[in-house]
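Posting for a labmate who doesn't have an account.
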Amino acid sequence: VDHRGRVLARSTLGEPEVLSAEVPRREGSTIYARLGDWPVVLSSFALLAWPWVQRRVRVRGSAA
């Protein structure tokens, strides 16, 4: 199976077989290598702050 999910070779059903191929190394950097933990930290902060923000908006809305 290549990097796009295409099947390049298959064995016959019910027959023990070994398929071997050379796997090319990936080029370039991943998103995690570029951004690190910051997206996870910011998302966690936003999820934890959301109920507090909603409560403040609800309190302000009922006072008006």
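Reply:
Got it, the structure tokens are right above this. The two ends are 61 Å apart (CA to CA).
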